[in-house]
Amino acid sequence: MKTLLPLFFCFIFLQVKATTWTVTVSSNQFTPSSLNVVVGDVIQWVWSSGVHTTTSLSVPAGGATWDASIINTSTTFNYTVTAAGSYSYECSIHTPLMSGSFTATSALPVTISSFNISTQNNKPLISWTTQTELNSDYFSISKSTNGRDFKEIGKVKAAGNSSVEKNYSFSDEKISETSKYVYYVLATVDKDGKTQLSPIKIYRNKSAASKLIISLSPNPISEMGHLMLKYNADKSGIMIAKLIDMQGKIILKTELSAVQGVNNGHIHLGDVSPGVYTFVFSLDGINESYRITKK
Fold first, then answer.
1. Which DSSP letter does residue 30 get?
2. Which SS3 state, helix, strand or coil, does residue 92 take?
3. Sign of the dihedral through C-alpha 225, 102, 195, 180
4. pLDDT, tens digit (0-9, with 9 covering 90-100), for 100-134
5. Taking a C-beta distance cutoff of 8 angstroms, is the pair 89, 64 a contact?
6. Structurally, what CATH architecture does the domain formed by 213-294 represent?
7. What's the predicted TM-score (pTM) here?
8. Which of 233, 8, 245 is nearest to 132 (CA)?
9. What is residue 287's predicted lDDT score, i.e. its pLDDT?
């Protein structure tokens, strides 16, 4: 039986199918802006609104560069990942305000059948199940509050070699009450040091306040007039932003698309006269007001 085990795992590995990952392009942001993929997968950018491009900034050795328009007459672009490593890209029209990235790893002979985040004792419980393992060393759990910058928070020892179902879990005991959404990634590491990353999972922190706007910057706003903002959304929708002057007149009204989790966007205020204004943001029944100054 031992002599047949490597052949069995090889067969499982060869049956892995490529995944197509969709990135929506709208409101000056790529959604999602960060992905973990496997070599052979396909990234598909899909137009939703506006005039944009997807243009590679950096690719690993062996990877191909790309530059494609994402507009209403050219609504999709597919890119097949051919090399492991880190990729970054931008919309050349809205650089440096609109960017994204993805990390590609080679597939390992470890079959993970489920990866979930639940709540246990008011804390995130990360759980996963493997159906097969070959030469696995450990699992690494990392988290992020913005979906892009991840930090390792723990490790769990793997079975090594197994052809039966194995269940694993890890509890995150250090979650901040200021973070409404937290992102998690599971890394499988084998005994040769090779790593495969899971898709990114999002967790809704019910202990956090229901805050819409996370940050606005800069304030005061410079003459160039780019206001950067981060905002939360409980589901996909449209956030309405209104700029109101001191006399109560609406100077500007714009829409920003939102998906569940932390969103990034920017509003161009270059044509707005210097002065003090109030920005009113509305999304899914939540309204928040912020005072800003335009130089």
1. E
2. coil
3. positive
4. 999 999 989 999 999 999 999 999 999 999 999 99
5. no
6. Sandwich (2.60)
7. 0.84
8. 8
9. 96
